[in-house]
Design brief:
This protein has 217 residues and is mostly beta strands. The chain is built from no helices and 18 strands. The two termini are 32 Å apart.
Length: 217
């Protein structure tokens, strides 16, 4: 790649076509001035991404799904879209607008420790998941997939065992979805147990009731 970036890089993602995505907290890549903290390299040449994040917050995670959709997570507080991308930051709380779909969809939430996780709540639907004495280790990655057809709560720490055993009875983990329109999501952690390394991000795929979403598939 020609030159480098002028700040911290938190994630590097290599796409199947050879493009390399960098996310972090920087304002310049090579000779390109960036308005957002993400850039891609195509055959060694930096290119800005056609996306407009709110504010100038850190980009923490970049990944794609099997259909080629690009997902970007960070400390921003609302979703944005562009270049077939969806992103949301969910540290603390976020007011999300899932406006590109017309049907309910199920999120995937990833939390990186350290910190004691108390609950995750969608105030727009009333669904909540409460955790009992779940304290993540430094660097431990908690991956929560709420799709009821592929429900998985896993930890990167082998010694953790089943994460579901930490979920309190009565929690809505089998019916935790995002509705079309605004969703207010909160991730509650004990502040005294978290550090600057504690992170969280959420991704989802828009769903449609009919052919109105065919152009996005």
């Amino acid at each position: 790649m020609a030159g480098g970036v002028n700040g911290a890089v938190y994630d590097v993602f290599c796409a199947d076509n050879g493009d390399i995505y960098l996310g972090g907290y920087f304002t310049k890549a090579g000779n390109i001035i960036l308005t957002d903290r993400v850039v891609k390299s195509v055959q060694g040449v930096f290119q800005p991404i056609d996306i407009d994040f709110p504010g100038n917050e850190h980009v923490l995670k970049i990944c794609t799904t099997s259909d080629g959709s690009l997902y970007i997570g960070g400390n921003f507080s609302t979703i944005v879209s562009g270049e077939n991308a969806i992103a949301a930051g969910v540290v603390g709380g976020a007011d999300l607008n899932v406006s590109s779909g017309s049907a309910n969809t199920y999120p995937r939430i990833v939390i990186i420790g350290p910190g004691k996780l108390n609950s995750i709540t969608n105030y727009s639907t009333g669904a909540h998941v409460e955790f009992n004495d779940l304290t993540l280790l430094a660097g431990e990655r908690l991956d929560l997939n709420f799709d009821p057809l592929d429900l998985k709560f896993t930890s990167s720490w082998d010694g953790r065992g089943s994460v579901l055993r930490y979920v309190n009875a009565g929690s809505d983990y089998g019916n935790f979805y995002l509705k079309p329109g605004y969703n207010t999501i909160s991730v509650f952690m004990d502040k005294s147990t978290t550090t600057a390394a504690t992170k969280a991000w959420m991704a989802w795929k828009p769903k449609f009731w009919g052919i109105d979403g065919a152009l996005l598939e």
